[in-house]
């Protein structure tokens, strides 16, 4: 038997609310080990499967290296295109990153912003329409901003740290919002029924880490963050049948699709001794471990609902 585990990364369980497991799957999950609750969130979930030294989370530098291969000698901060809405006393972040921009549109949007940030010595560039970067001196002290997945829906200014390092960045964001509000491309986007790009979102600051290592030997994902980590860890995308495998299914929102395309084939591998165990890792911190030997737990009832 291959001494290997198969781990699925999944979104938080509430995303599957009202979706019941298949009868056979419900029985298997009822017999499975329910793992201790862990820290919720995208970053915490990934940190369960990858080690980074020093222990920071410099995703801007990692994705910049993935996008442009020039991150080595600088510090980087993501300054992604965003859409915000002013409400009573707050400026709410509603979208960040993928706003459906073409590369030509991204280049047009950053032209006036290049002047704003270039005047203070922070060149702005957009090697990808959804991923914009500020380049800073390597020794720069950058505030820690929450990742977009935790900031969506919140007041964008409430995401800033409360120390003195944040004051400058608050001012820069205000100026960037004014510049983008007046950009002629936004009038065109509104006419087309598209969201205007009326803000930036800062996050992921830092320099390239010294060391990145995944706990699994094989990773399957379309996620740029994980691919960036894999690249820095020296991992390729070639498939092999042996070794621990991590499969990124966080994009799925239909439990039945996950069952049919991923979980049920994995259970078949488990029954034929091709896998030692299957783990389900939800981004809310919940988890299950499935082993073939658990089928003897006949006294346990089926899992009626995931959450």
- Strand arrangement, largest sheet? 2-13-12-1-11-10
How would the global form be characterised?
elongated
Please give the number of β-strands. Answer: 13
Question: What is the N-to-C succession of helices and strands?
Answer: EHEHEHEEHEEHHHEEEHEHEE
Distance between the termini: 33 Å
Question: Mean pLDDT score, rounded?
Answer: 93
Strand content: 15-25%
Helix % is 25-40%
The SS-based structural class is alpha+beta
Low-confidence stretches: none
Number of helices: 9
How many domain regions?
2
Using only CA atoms, what is the Rg? Answer: 22 Å
Sketch the major β-sheet.
6 strands, mixed
Describe, in plain words, how this protein is organized in 3D.
This protein is α+β, with helices and mostly antiparallel strands and 307 residues long. It has two domains: 5-52 and 213-296; 59-206, no CATH class. It is built from nine helices and 13 strands. A six-stranded mixed β-sheet has the order 2-13-12-1-11-10, covered by helices on one side. Helix 8 links the parallel strand 10 (218-220) and strand 11. Helix 3 (59-68) crosses helix 8. The model has no long low-confidence stretch (mean pLDDT 93).
């Amino acid at each position: 038997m291959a001494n290997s585990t198969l781990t699925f990364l999944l979104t938080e369980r509430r995303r599957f609310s009202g979706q019941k497991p298949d009868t056979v799957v419900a029985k298997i999950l009822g017999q499975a080990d329910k793992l201790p609750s862990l820290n919720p969130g995208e970053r915490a979930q990934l940190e369960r499967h990858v080690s980074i030294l020093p222990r920071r989370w410099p995703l801007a530098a990692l994705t910049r290296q993935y996008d442009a291969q020039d991150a080595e000698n600088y510090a980087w901060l993501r300054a992604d295109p965003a859409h915000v809405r002013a409400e009573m006393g707050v400026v709410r972040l509603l979208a960040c990153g993928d706003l459906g921009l073409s590369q030509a549109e991204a280049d047009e949007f950053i032209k006036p912003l290049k002047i704003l940030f270039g005047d203070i010595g922070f060149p702005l560039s957009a090697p990808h329409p959804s991923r914009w970067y500020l380049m800073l001196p390597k020794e720069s002290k950058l505030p820690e901003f929450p990742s977009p997945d935790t900031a969506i829906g919140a007041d964008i200014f409430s995401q800033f740290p409360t120390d003195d390092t944040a004051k400058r960045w608050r001012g820069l964001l205000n100026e960037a919002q004014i510049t983008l509000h007046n950009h002629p491309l936004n009038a065109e986007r509104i006419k087309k029924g598209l969201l205007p790009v009326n803000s930036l979102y800062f996050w992921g600051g830092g320099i390239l880490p010294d060391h990145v290592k995944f706990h699994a030997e094989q990773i399957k994902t379309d996620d740029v963050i994980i691919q960036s980590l894999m690249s820095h860890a020296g991992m390729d995308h070639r498939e092999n049948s042996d070794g621990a495998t991590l499969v990124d299914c966080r994009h799925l929102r239909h439990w039945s699709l996950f069952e049919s395309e991923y979980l049920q084939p994995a259970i078949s591998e488990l029954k034929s001794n091709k896998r030692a165990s299957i783990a389900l890792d939800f981004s809310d911190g919940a988890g299950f471990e499935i082993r073939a030997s658990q089928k003897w737990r006949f006294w346990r009832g089926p899992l009626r609902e995931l959450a």
